[in-house]
Design brief:
The complex is a heterodimer of chains A (405) and B (181). Chain A has 405 residues and is an alpha+beta fold. Chain A has one domain: Cytochrome-c3 Hydrogenase, chain B (Orthogonal Bundle). In chain A, the strands form three sheets. Chain A has a three-stranded antiparallel β-sheet. Chain A has a three-stranded antiparallel β-sheet with strand order 6-7-8. A two-stranded antiparallel sheet of chain A has the order 4-5. In chain A, helix 3 runs antiparallel to helix 4 and helix 4 runs antiparallel to helix 16. Chain A is globular and about 95 Å long. Chain B is α/β, with parallel strands linked by helices and 181 residues long. Chain B has a single domain, classed as NADH:ubiquinone oxidoreductase Nqo5 subunit (Beta Polymerase, domain 2, 2-Layer Sandwich). Chain B has three helices and seven strands; from the N terminus they run αββαββββαβ. Classes of the chains: A alpha+beta (405), B alpha/beta (181). Chains A and B meet through strand 2, strand 3, helix 1, helix 8 and strand 6 of A and strand 3 and helix 3 of B.
Chain lengths: 405, 181
């Protein structure tokens, strides 16, 4: 517990004179929660003695819903789990089903997935950092970072027609190829982003207020992080280096040259600053992926998985039958189960799918990164001050949609 | 280490107590009884060549009516529920899955909270969704559904269209000890 320094000659209040503690509720609807989270704090003055958390306010039954629809129909649901990095979640779902079926998306589709996923990572980190800095009283950074995010959303819109809920990935690839001129626009945004993100980092990293509010606040040790199952930037801020893109590469991540930033202190400041470095690495990956973008199809050639092209459907009997069969009977993976994992912006996003051979999954279990990260949060608050809640909560980037599913 | 080698190690160590093994797409798993759970997972954690020090995920499955077409006799299970524990070794970067066969909701499963604090909320979710109870869990309450919710929604006999009234929020979230929260 932090004991404030008293002026000379003033005696501290003896513990026996503390007559009662105050219980305060934060949320579920409160600006700092950026979602629907409820916290209950027991306070002695401004110091937190105990904390409790309640989640589930955004529970929509994603897992149950996924058991009742065809595999391809889960793609939009997967996007709505994490509304900050939608396209990554949808790609991760498609990748899981592909693994279950033993198929692989074409090289071009994989590269497009890498590009869009890294764009989603940049978007996600922009939201996390920008929103957290608003909580700390720094509004300018929010506009700067939102500018970067806006450019990404604009590109998503050109790609798919929707800014956030793209519904772009498909089992077996992506729904359509990159539009004309899109690559040049993305390169330009990457160039613009460099300055904006650099400016924000310069604005905060030497800022007295930012440092005072975040340095040493709610730190987490390596042991505790592993014990709670932390992954992603939060784990890497404690000095442990684990990134699934490096350890168990998927979508051809081994072809790109990038570093995994690691910070040592595990406090709120490190959890925030590491995201700036990750955005820079994502930028590098995107530029490399654009340089190396392979030619070829964006969907696999398998009529049991992918809908045929429209002009074939209208002109060829076979294609019409394939279209009809796939719409009516769905994609049918073999009996079996898979635990598929990808490095989402917040950590390991796992899909545990059990198939009984029918077009609907028997069971879909999602391992959201936020869930493990947030379960350590009440303990992190012990001994901190009330104002630290805002700083620490933003730094672990809880996406309530993914936390509650 | 290759997952098949891990299966072999477990078979050599636990013999008959491994009820069944599973392999597909390069992923392997063993099924055990709840009574052996702590022993198997601590073996996986403490063995120098395995070192599974992270519990990534705990997820329940309800197999009521699974494989109902009768085509495959192996699919007919004598137990209704399974709980899958996804293990990960930070040091060695390998994975494994251990599944526990739970006959019905009268069987209690030992809680892993003492070993991995992350199991606290994950087990609460399994309890909430499937009604499986965990022995030794310090704070076994519902987590995603509200406290007045009736039934366990991820069970196969819970209809997806069923609606329930929302309750008022509970007053007290604090636990006697902070690590129970």
């Amino acid at each position: 517990m932090n004991t404030p320094k008293l002026p000379a000659g003033v005696e501290p209040v003896a513990q026996s004179e503390v007559t009662e503690t105050l219980v305060v509720n934060i949320g579920p609807s409160h600006p700092i929660t950026h979602g629907t989270l409820r916290l209950q704090l027991e306070l002695d003055g401004e110091t937190i003695l105990r904390a409790g958390a309640e989640i589930g306010y955004l529970h929509r039954g994603y897992e149950k819903q996924s058991e009742t629809v065809f595999y391809n129909m889960v793609v939009p649901y997967a996007e709505r789990m994490n509304y900050c990095s939608t396209i990554h979640n949808a790609s991760a779902w498609c990748y899981a089903v592909e693994q279950l079926m033993g198929i692989e998306a074409p090289a071009r589709a994989q590269a497009i997935r890498v590009i869009t996923s890294e764009m989603a990572r940049i978007t996600d980190h922009c939201v996390c950092l920008g929103a957290n800095m608003v909580d700390l009283g720094a509004l300018t950074n929010f506009w700067y970072l939102n500018n970067v995010r806006e450019k990404m959303l604009f590109l998503f819109q050109e790609l798919s027609g929707a800014r956030m809920m793209t519904n772009y990935p498909r089992i077996g690839g992506v729904v359509q190829d990159l539009p004309d001129g899109w690559i040049a626009k993305l390169r330009q945004s990457m160039e613009d982003m460099k300055g904006l993100v650099g400016d924000v980092k310069d604005l905060v990293s030497n800022n007295r207020i930012f440092i005072d509010r975040t340095q040493g606040v709610c730190p987490t040790t390596k042991e505790r992080a592993l014990n709670y199952g932390w992954t992603g930037p939060c784990l890497r801020s404690t000095g442990l280096s684990m990134d699934l893109r490096k350890d168990q590469p998927y979508w051809g991540y081994e072809r790109y040259d990038f570093k995994v930033p690691v910070y040592q202190n595990g406090d709120t400041m490190d959890r925030l600053l590491i995201r700036f470095d990750e955005m820079e690495e994502s930028r590098k990956i995107i530029l490399q992926a654009l340089d190396k973008l392979p030619d070829g199809p964006h969907l696999i050639d398998d009529h049991l998985v992918v809908l045929p092209e429209k002009d074939k459907v209208y002109n060829q009997m076979e294609a019409l039958i394939n279209h009809f069969k796939l719409v009516m009977h769905g994609v049918r993976p073999p009996k079996g189960e898979i635990y598929s994992f990808t490095e989402s912006p917040n950590g390991e996003l796992g899909f545990y799918i059990i198939s009984d051979g029918s077009p609907r999954a028997w069971r879909v279990r999602v391992r959201p990164p936020c869930f493990a990260n947030y379960s350590a949060f009440p303990q992190m608050l012990q001994g901190a001050m009330v104002a630290d809640v805002a700083a620490a909560l933003g730094s672990i980037n809880i996406i309530a949609g993914e936390l509650d599913r | 280490m290759d997952q098949s080698q891990i299966t072999d190690r477990l078979k050599a160590r636990f013999g008959e107590r491994i009820l069944s093994t599973y392999a597909m797409c390069g992923q392997e798993a063993v099924t055990i009884l709840p009574a052996d759970l702590v022993e198997v997972l601590t073996f996986l954690r403490d063995e120098p060549e395995l070192r599974f020090n992270m519990l990534m995920d705990v997820g329940g499955v309800d197999y009521l009516g699974f494989g109902g077409d009768g085509e495959d006799e192996d699919e007919v299970r004598s137990h209704r529920f399974e709980i899958a524990y996804q293990m990960f070794s930070y040091d060695l970067r390998h994975r494994y899955r251990v599944k526990v066969a739970v006959k019905d909701d009268s069987v209690e499963v030992p809680s892993l909270w003492e070993i991995w604090r992350g199991a606290n909320w994950m087990e609460r979710e399994v309890f909430d969704m499937f009604g499986i109870r965990f022995t030794g869990h310090p704070n076994l309450r519902r987590i995603l559904n509200h406290d007045d919710f009736v039934g366990h929604p991820l069970r196969k006999d819970y209809p997806i269209t069923k609606r329930q009234k929302l309750s008022r929020p509970i007053d007290h979230l604090l636990t006697d000890k902070q690590e129970w929260a």
